[in-house]
Amino acid sequence: MKKIITLFLLTAGMYACNNGSTDAKTEPKAEEKTEAKPEVKETTKADPTDSPEFQKGLELVKNSDCNTCHKVDEKVIGPPFRDVANKYPNNDATIDSLAHKIINGGSGHWGSIAMAAHKDLSVDDAKAIAKYVLLLKNN
């Protein structure tokens, strides 16, 4: 009888120590077994810095006076480019509007300090800068 009780206590102790184990060797319960599903990769947006539009706009900004008043994430005189990107949707109407604002200057949307006009900038280059800025949007 002592052997049976000892065997029972050892078995119960082993069961208690293994209960809830996350050991990979354990088989899932019948209701947990499912067909193997193909791994679904999370869809991520492409890195905007790889796009030709981003690169063109970045180059235009580097070769202009934009960085005198704007930084990507830091307010200087004008708003950070990322704040502009987060405020406006990335669509053709916004690109046209921002390009117009870049060429003609203006004030009132970001405070009382006026943005200088860039009359020598082509419409295509102003649109490229606007596209670059809008690609900085936080996702």
How would you characterize the overall build of this protein?
- The protein has 139 residues and is an all-alpha fold.
- The chain has a domain at 71-139: Cytochrome Bc1 Complex, Chain D, domain 2 (Orthogonal Bundle), CATH 1.10.760.
- Helix content is 46%, strand content 0%.
- It contains 6 helices and no strands.
- It has helices spanning 2-18, 52-62, 66-69, 81-87, 92-104, 123-134.
- The longest helix is centred in the first third of the chain and has 17 residues, at 2-18.
- The termini are far apart.
- 16% of the residues are buried.
Brief descriptors of the model:
139 residues; mainly alpha; Cytochrome Bc1 Complex, Chain D, domain 2; 6 helices; elongated
Form type: elongated
Radius of gyration: 31 Å
Largest beta-sheet characterization: none
Helix content: 40-55%
* CATH fold naming of the domain at 71-139: Cytochrome Bc1 Complex, Chain D, domain 2
Could you give the topology of this structure?
Blueprint (H helix, E strand, L loop, with lengths): L1 H17 L33 H11 L3 H4 L11 H7 L4 H13 L18 H12 L5
Helix pairs in contact: 2-6, 5-6
Would you kindly provide a brief summary of this structure?
This protein has helices spanning 2-18, 52-62, 66-69, 81-87, 92-104, 123-134. By secondary structure, the chain is an all-alpha fold.
